[in-house]
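User: Before I run my own analysis I want an independent prediction to cross-check against. Here's the chain; please return only the structure tokens and, at the end, one sentence I can use as a sanity check.
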Amino acid sequence: MFRGLLKGLKDLFYPNCCLICGNIIQIPDRQELICASCWDSLEKNLPPFCASCGRHLGPEAIKRNTCPSCSKYKENFYFDRAFSPCVYTGSVKKLIHEFKYSGKDYLGAFLGKLMNTFIRDYQLPIAYLDFIIPVPLHSSRKREREFNQAEILGRKIADEFGKKILTDALIRSKPTKTQTELTFGQRCRNIEGCFTVTNPELINNTNLLIIDDVLTTAATANEAAKCLKKAGAKKVLLLTLAS
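Assistant: Structure tokens:
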């Protein structure tokens, strides 16, 4: 009873507000982070999926089973397939920015659930994967941000499906400049050689799932997959929150 009174006072003076639209959440839902309207506005990535990057295929690309972008670059991809539950736009984009750049690491629990639901709904072959590997940050970037968003998401998936997450098997051994304004080719050159596998014996002959928050050109995740494949990984899948 006392606890209920305290919650009532908290809601009176500090009402739960939606992280996206800012409106008061009248009925607590979705861990009281976003309102029902904004939940419905989250743009989901729907099938059919590109066989390379996992993005939705338009009618003109269904016959090729590959999107126009991947048709140009798929021969350079080291990951075997990529998946994303959401489209990187609107409300999803805002949540990810709040997660990464505003220190709201608690959003990882909510965003991780989106990924776990996608894994179940589309029956991703997680049972056949040996390890989960989050895309690492360079130590200087991690000190600045105080957490690795990919690691938080990866832990939510690992806990949900009983998988082991490796946070030190792949490290970012050299810093790189921001990729935001670069083309795919420029991103590849910028990121080349920045990852190191610390224990090749552990990676050899394994099937792996790389986790990251966003897939744009796939250059970063591709370089990580390249490094893991050179260390002996058999299959490397990629799962990002949005693309």
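Sanity check: Confidence is low (pLDDT under 50) at residues 1-14.
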